[in-house]
Amino acid sequence: MDFFGNLIFKIETKGFAPLAPLQKSKPTYTLFNVIMDELGMAEWAGKKEKDPKSGKGSTRPQEPHIKADSADVAFWDHLILRDFLETIDQMLNDEVSKKIGRETNAIGWAHEQKRTQEEVVEILLNLQRQYPDIDVPEKATPRPTISGIDQSTKILGAVCNTIAVIAANGTKYCDLLEAISKYEISNDELLNVLDKLIRSKQYDRTKIDRTSKIPVVLNKTFIAYQKKELIHFDKPPTLTDFFRQLKTKVNFLSDTDETLLLQIQNYDHVIAKYS
Questions:
Q1: Cβ atoms of residues 137 and 80 within 8 Å
Q2: Cα separation, 101 vs 271, whole angstroms
Q3: Residue 26 buriedness (CB in 10 A; 0-12 / 13-18 / 19+)
Q4: Using the 8-state DSSP alphabet, how is residue 75 labeled?
Q5: 177-201 residue pLDDT tens
Q6: CB within 8 A of 172, min separation 6: which ones?
Q7: Are 51 and 58 in contact (CB under 8 A)?
Q8: In whole angstroms, how far apart are CA 213 and each of 12, 147, 149, 258?
Q9: Of 58, 96, 170, 183, which is the most buried if we count CB atoms within 10 A?
């Protein structure tokens, strides 16, 4: 796949601006956004504004702008995407450093207000010649998401949404939370464990449980728990720290999801009171 050639085509079609979101009238790319868009990790999002001619508060779409999410954990197979992005980042850094004559971060260089489209295309052309057949991963597939889950902490949102995907495929929340509580690993490692489970079981990654409130309440309760813990400790607690602590207050092997939910909600109220 001619990855760098595709980036050049996109930029020459839509244009380049160092900080595209500041170019309010043009759907231009930054170097970062064009890479994310080529991998399927960006979305075209048109804004709406009041129509000054009508005077009635009606809206009309503006030119679309690229909104890219740099968090690879928001997508399935995020480790593959992460490795590829790191490889591309290093290639760009090396090429720009060679041009500048000193070690340089390519994305930072491309964000400088004086940067031109011609300069960026020149870098991409050089890389296209060097790497004409680079192995590119399949287009990124976003994890399904549930309304009410805080996505600002990407890894937390990814874990809670993935728990809901596993539940939608038939695993009981009580069994899954019991299994998670036995780990003592980082947040990234926990997400990897859940993703491996989904692959090993060949679960449908498009399904997500939108009926139970358990994933949303887990998300909310962890945020309160983290805030409470940071009052006493400098190091933020991991998600598995939280699940182990939660197990001391909640019977994960409850008879029903409703009973489990009520216990988690009760613990959330207790944490919120003292955090």
A1: yes
A2: 54
A3: middle
A4: B
A5: 999 999 999 999 999 999 999 999 9
A6: 257
A7: yes
A8: 46, 10, 10, 9
A9: 96
The residues, ordered by sequence, that sit 6+ positions from 188 with a Cβ below 8 Å of its Cβ are: 73, 155
CA distance 113 to 273: 48
Nearest CA to 246 out of 227, 211, 271 is that of 271
Alpha carbon distance 4, 126 (integer Å): 9
Q: What is the 3-state secondary structure (H, E, C) of 97-121?
A: HHHHCCCCCHHHHHHCCCCCHHHHH
State the Cα angle at 221 between 228 and 161, rounded to 5°: 135
Residue type, 69: D
Q: What are the domain boundaries of the chain?
A: 3-130, 154-274
In the numeric block, which tokens belong to residue 264?
A: 């988690």
pLDDT, tens digit (0-9, with 9 covering 90-100), for 11-49: 999 999 887 555 555 678 999 999 999 999 998 876 566
